[in-house]
Amino acid sequence: MISPALPELPDGVTVTALRDLAVRLATAAGALVREGRPDRVVVAATKSSEVDPVTVMDRASEELLREMIAAERPDDAILGEEGDDVAGTSGLTWVLDPIDGTVNYLYGVASWAVSVAVVAGPPEPASWTVLAGCVHSVADGRTWSAGLGEGATRDGVPVRVGAAASLGTSLVGTGFGYDAARRAHQAQVLTQVLPKIRDIRRLGSAAIDLCLLADGSIDLYYERGLNPWDMAAGAVVATEAGAVVTGLRGGPAGNAMTVAGPPELVAQLSEILEAADADGARSPEIG
Ligand code: IPD
Ligand code: CA
């Protein structure tokens, strides 16, 4: 995919410097969360439903990220999963997921990450331009990052999306929301997708899923219900690795649907998802 045009940046700011900061932020928060993980992680609170947990370390990680941003880029805005929005004056917003894959973190399953991105424009996927992002998979140390127009790397090595021969031989990542009715609908959609692909992976972190797509570890990814912080960093890593990241029916990627992968396979998968009403366009009552 061709990178979007680079918006005008505040004086003295470069994409490279923003990317470096995203990496420093994500790895510092990752170290905090790794070292602070108790033997038995407990749920501090629940959010959208009783299966949508927050732990003490989700909050501590986001606090550290906010402190570091306030110290280094005090004029930037902040949109984080676990805290109040902070307004800024620079036109840039940091989009933070302090632990993406909280359920995995809770259970000790290795797929969870700190995800940090910086965007220009309104901080929502339909209208932002993601300038840089980093996804740090804390359990194994893998670190993906990208800057707009700079390409994407994993641990400093450039990555590219894979080239599955066909939809039928594609390994497809996806995820499910926290609401029961939404999940029932997602399960129905899956019955339309699964017979037409190699297999599904539900690994539990949208940020990591998008990075696995970027480095060719999976062939395609789709999910309904992503929040801006689930996808901001992963989306720039994926697009800079050659993926398209889009919605259905010609719309942009976002909460209704995010589909990512090589253009031809995304088109084929999107057709199935549209027919299955995967974005809920024909069933708004499901939410
Ligand atoms: C969740 C993960 C999961 C995805 C959910 C997200 P969280 O984020 O990314 O893979 O399926 O849609 O909400 O709650 O662990 O930060
Ligand atoms: Ca998340």
UniProtKB/TrEMBL annotation:
Species annotation: Promicromonospora iranensis
Family: Belongs to the inositol monophosphatase superfamily.
Lineage: Bacteria, Bacillati, Actinomycetota, Actinomycetes, Micrococcales
Keyword presence, Magnesium: yes
InterPro entries reported for this sequence: IMPase, Inositol_monoP_metal-BS, Inositol_monophosphatase-like, Inositol_monophosphatase_CS
Pfam families: Inositol_P
Enzyme class: hydrolase
Signal sequence range: none
Reactions it catalyzes: a myo-inositol phosphate + H2O = myo-inositol + phosphate
Keyword Zinc: no
Transmembrane intervals: none
Record GO terms (molecular function): inositol monophosphate phosphatase activity
Keywords, ordered alphabetically: Hydrolase, Magnesium, Metal-binding
EC number: 3.1.3.25
Domain of life, per lineage: Bacteria
SUPFAM superfamilies assigned: Carbohydrate phosphatase
Required cofactor(s): Mg(2+)
Entry protein name: Inositol-1-monophosphatase
